[in-house]
Write a structure and sequence with these properties.
The protein is an alpha/beta fold. It contains 13 helices and eight strands. Helix 2 crosses helix 4, helix 4 packs parallel to helix 5 and helix 5 packs parallel to helix 6.
Amino acid sequence: MNYSEQRKRLRAVLAGSKCLSPASVYDPLSARVAEAVGYEIGMLAGSVASNTTLAAPDLIVLTLTELADQIRRIMRASKLSLIVDADHGYGNALNVMRTVEELERAGVSAMSIEDTLLPTRFGQPEGTDELISVEEMVGKLKAAVAARQDPSLVIAGRTAALKVEGTEKAVARAKAYAATGVDAIFIVGVETLDQVQAIHAAAKLPVIIGSAPASLKREDFAARGVRILLQGHQPVAAAVKALHETYTHLYNGGAPADLKDKVASAKDMEKLVNGDAYKQWQREYLR
C-alpha cells in the first residue's frame, strides 16, 4: 500500500505554525473511533503497544515484529497519519535499519528513535534512565535516515537528556542529532519553555514533546517550534476502566440492559466495523 498521503499530511503539520495533539490509539477499532471524532494524526506509544499487545509493562519485552504487526492492523483499518515510538530501534544501528524498513512498510508516517539505554542494564538503579553516547546515537540516526525508502517518512531523534543530563547537554545532543538528517527532535522531560526554546534554536527542526506540565500552554509551545504535543494515553486507561466496570456489573448479576447508556449502540458499532460495506460484498460475491 502507498502511505505517502498520510506522511505528507504529517509533514504539512511539522512545516506549519500550529501545535497539535494526536489521538493515542492502540488497535484498529480505537483508530476508527479516533477518526470518527475527527483526528487525522494518531500515536502508538511503546508503552501502549506493550500494555495492549502483551499486557506487559514498558520494559522492551515487545518485539519489533509484534509492533510492526499491530501497526499493519491499525493502518489497514484507518487513514490516520500514525506516529510510532520505536524505542531504541530494537538494538544497534544495524537493527535500527531493520526497524525503519519494517515500520515503513507497515505504514507509519513517523517514527522516533531514542537515546535511552534500553533495555535496562543489570544493576541499573530502579526508576532511572541512562543514555547511550552521542556518537552511538548519531550512528543510529544516520542509519535510520539511510534506511528510509519513502522520503516523505518522518524520522525523529528522541532524547531524554533534559531529565538525565540537563539543558546544556540536551541542547548539544539535539544539535548533533539534527545534523544527521532527521526531520524532527522529540524531547521528553520538559519543565520550562526556555528549555524548548533553546533546543529548537539549536536544532532548527520541528519539535515533538512527549509530556509537559499542564501549566505550559499549547500556544506557547507553538511559538517555540513545537508542532506535536502528546497528552498521555488516557484513552487506553479509560477503555480499561470501562471494561472493568462492565465486567463487574455483569459478573455480579447486573442486567445487560442496564448498560445501555454506557456502551456504543449497535448502529455505532456497525459503522465502525464497516458493516454496510461487508453486507454489500456479501450480496455481490456470496452466491
